[in-house]
Design a protein that fits this description.
The complex is a heterodimer of chains A (633) and B (110). Chain A has 633 residues and is mostly helical. In chain A, helix 2 runs parallel beside helix 18. Chain A starts with a helix and ends in a 10-residue tail after the last helix. Chain A folds into two domains: 485 residues, Up-down Bundle (Sodium/glucose cotransporter), CATH 1.20.1730; 56 residues. The longest helix of chain A is centred in the first third of the chain and has 47 residues. Helices cover 77% and strands 0% of the residues of chain A. Chain B has one domain. Chain B has a two-stranded antiparallel ribbon. In chain B, strand 1 and strand 2 form a beta hairpin. The chains are: A mainly alpha (633), B mainly alpha (110). At the A-B interface, helix 6, helix 10, helix 13, helix 15 and helix 26 of A face helix 1, helix 2, strand 2 and helix 4 of B.
Chain lengths: 633, 110
């Protein structure tokens, strides 16, 4: 026990030494201590929860699925905490603040995804599963083959998602609070390791619940403050949004030449219409498919259904999760438009070009602005919640990857289930340390890399490989080992392959051409400004022109620097000069391929066990007969 | 580990009670699933190919597009509520009866 306390203390110390390493961030330097106080309080509470949980984690079942003793309501909040990553919390509010309607439309798929989970995944998986995705796949198929492909896919999906979270989180914390990237990656990693290693699923569940409650509370408060001045009227509020000069200016900037003949009223209204961000409908449908089918194939989400005792509790947890997640996304409409109107796209972009700071900056504005104590207290609170969000999501992912490594690969495949209960728990903890160390290392190595496509990739693999295999083994009698193995391989390779040749990657020639265009445009501007300056006689006009010239020169120099950086590179990392596949999201092609592979593999392969076990699987997934009762603590 | 060999699964599967549960549940689940997918994909398809329709203002600045997007949330929650009600009033009692019957037979064997 003393060793555990020591490590917990170590995590605290690490959080504390990060204080002096400050750079620029959204939180003004003299208010930064506020963020640390709020974040410190969150760490203290979650560490205490972990300490209590650690005493309860004795068996592998406790470690992986909290002994199956989580209630439906608790699990609903935990699913929301597991699912609402910083990308959805900060990212979607940011998209709405910059692009209006398209950002809101984007959020819908994240909720609809849970209909798939509710109708065909949650209850059957609870009825026949134990700890992992592979437990479902191995039920009536060849144990070793199913466990190996299931575990590899779980580790692949979790690693993609984990890397995106670690890198995205590191950048976010740097933008928000100004802590060095490496330190924030390490703090996130070590905190998460502390929760998972000692508290297993019990602590992870509570960390996710606490984080979800904080996130929802913060969002509700922000929306109340944003909406109150308009008497909670939707048209009244949106009239103010479309009438705002900052919103109109942002739309004009997005539309460029097309905005010239539009009145300010038309520009404002355009913010509530589609097409400012999402240009390719086919890509939207492809992304929608990956979302609504991929969520149900995400190992860390699937794992949450093994933590409840019955199918009824699993159902109840999805209902709660849908209420919380859906409610949250409706709130983001107000967070995003509120930030667009009150803070303004120019300011939001100034702190972070991707718009991620919209929510935090709105909080600061509500409290009274960048110079006020209350404004910075609000900002500090939102920043701390964002940090907690990253830790909670990462903890769930690490647990999923570690369970695949320890439970499926080590215990199931290598030791063929001949292990003592103590060995199982030890294997789980060792795997957790391996995955945690890997997450921190990848996070630091991937600094500065473009990781946005990794989230798309995780959903693509989950929807093209995991979901077809799980769905067909649960509902199609003929499905067997041949189908599972072929489906996993084809689904994964198709998803990864298509992303590698998609526009998601960086294409040096395209970047170079875009930057050269900027250089040409700025040069033309400079010539014009130069001529105007010689002609200008009055001091104010001269001053303005000089400022314009300085701005143009800066933009030109930045573009030239980027061209220089590219140098003689011509191709992307897979050797293509331009994308060979036009969609950013491969789902439209890779999901049908995944299903087709499972069907073909099953038809071509003879597997007596899969056929014989069908009655058992089908009766159990529908009735829950022989479902082990939860262990009372 | 649960010992699953003590149950005659084939016999349960072929019982009329189980077959009825299977029929009712599958028709309901996949029907609802298809409806929800169609309704969801109408949103990006409409935004991509019929943007003029989305721009029609109905309530102050609130246009068809915003109402349609908001309706997605209502429909998703509605489906969840509809399914949960049907499951707890129809499927759960049917499954419980099958489980009780099977457990009685298992008890009888001992």
């Amino acid at each position: 026990m003393s060793a555990r306390r020591l490590t917990l203390a170590g995590a605290f110390a690490l959080a504390a030494i990060s204080t002096p390493a400050l750079a620029q961030g959204a939180v003004p330097e003299r208010f930064r201590w506020l963020t640390f106080v709020v974040f410190g309080a969150i760490i203290a509470v979650t560490m205490y929860v972990t300490y209590v949980a650690a005493k309860r984690v004795k068996t592998a079942s406790d470690f992986y699925v909290a002994g199956g003793g989580v209630s439906g309501l608790q699990n609903g909040w935990a699913i929301a905490g597991d699912y609402l990553s910083a990308a959805s919390f900060l990212g979607i509010a940011g998209l709405i603040s910059l692009y209006g309607y398209d950002g809101f439309m984007y959020s819908v798929g994240w909720l609809v995804a849970y209909i798939t989970v509710l109708l065909v995944i949650a209850e059957p998986c609870r009825n026949i599963g134990k700890y992992t995705l592979s437990d479902i796949l191995a039920y009536r198929n060849n144990q070793k083959a199913a466990r190996i492909v299931g575990a590899l896919s779980t580790i692949t999906v979790s690693t993609f998602y984990l890397t995106a979270q670690m890198v995205g989180g590191g950048v976010l914390v740097k933008t928000l609070i100004g802590i060095d990237y490496e330190i924030s990656v390490m703090v996130v990693g070590i905190l998460m390791l502390g929760y998972v290693l000692f508290g297993g699923m019990v602590a992870t569940t509570w960390v996710q619940i606490i984080k979800a409650i904080l996130l929802v509370t913060a969002s509700i408060l922000l929306v109340i403050f944003t909406w109150t001045p308009y008497g909670f009227s939707l048209p009244g509020y949106l009239t103010a949004v479309v009438g705002d000069a900052k919103v109109q200016a942002q739309v004009a900037a997005l539309l460029g030449d097309a905005a010239k003949n539009m009145t300010p009223e038309q520009l404002g209204q355009r913010f509530l219409e589609p097409g400012l961000y999402l240009k390719n409908p086919i890509d939207q449908i492809s992304l929608g498919m990956a979302l609504v089918l991929g969520t149900a194939g995400m190992p860390h989400i699937l794992m949450r259904f093994f933590t409840v005792p019955t199918a009824q509790a699993a159902r109840k947890s999805v209902i709660w999760a849908m209420a919380i997640i859906g409610g949250f996304y409706v709130l983001t409409l107000f967070l995003g438009t509120g930030a667009a109107m009150n803070v303004g796209a120019a300011t939001i972009r100034g702190v972070d070009p991707g718009g991620n700071m919209a929510g935090p900056l709105l909080a600061q504005w509500i409290g009274g602005g960048p110079e006020s104590m209350l404004g910075n207290l609000f900002l500090a609170f939102v920043a701390a919640v964002a940090f907690a969000t990253i830790v909670a999501v990462v903890a769930g992912l690490v647990l999923a990857a570690a369970s695949a490594m320890a439970h499926d690969l080590y215990v199931g495949v290598i030791r063929e289930d001949h292990v003592t209960p103590q060995e199982q728990v030890r294997a789980a903890r060792i795997a957790t340390v391996i995955v945690g160390a890997m997450a921190i290392t990848i996070g630091i190595l991937a600094k500065g890399q473009n990781v946005a496509h990794l989230v798309a990739l995780a959903f693509a693999v989950a929807s093209s490989a995991n979901l077809p295999c799980v769905l067909l083994t649960l509902f199609w009698k003929r499905c067997n080992t041949g189908g599972i193995v072929l489906g996993m391989i084809v689904g994964t390779l198709a998803a990864i392959g298509l992303v590698l040749i998609s526009p998601n990657l960086s294409y040096p020639l395209a970047i170079k051409a875009a930057q050269e265009k900027i250089v040409a445009a700025e040069s033309a501007k400079l010539t014009k400004f130069g001529a105007d300056l010689t002609a200008a006689t009055e001091a104010p006009a001269q001053g303005k022109l000089k400022a314009d010239i300085a701005k143009s020169e800066k933009a030109k120099a930045a573009a030239e620097a980027k061209i220089k950086e590219i140098g003689n590179d011509r191709t992307s990392i897979v050797g293509l000069e331009k994308p060979a596949f036009d969609l950013r999201n491969p789902g439209l092609i890779s999901i049908p391929l995944g299903f087709l592979a499972v069907i073909l593999g099953s038809l071509l392969y003879r597997d007596k066990r899969a056929e014989d076990m069908w009655d058992e699987l089908y009766v159990r997934q529908n009735t829950g007969l022989l479902l082990a009762k939860p262990v009372a603590h | 580990m649960v010992d699953t060999t003590q149950v005659d699964w084939k016999a349960i599967d072929s019982r009329p009670e189980f077959q009825e549960l299977h029929r009712k549940k599958m028709g309901f689940l996949w029907g609802l699933m298809i409806f929800s997918m169609v309704y969801y994909f109408l949103l990006p398809i409409g935004a991509g190919y019929f943007p003029e329709l989305y721009k029609v203002k109905v309530w102050g600045p609130v246009n068809v597009g915003i109402l349609f997007a908001l309706s997605q949330f209502i429909v998703a929650w509605g489906i969840a509520y509809f399914y949960a009600t049907r499951a707890s009033t129809v499927f759960d009692p049917m499954a419980a009866a099958i489980v009780a019957d099977a457990e009685k037979r298992m008890g009888g064997k001992k």
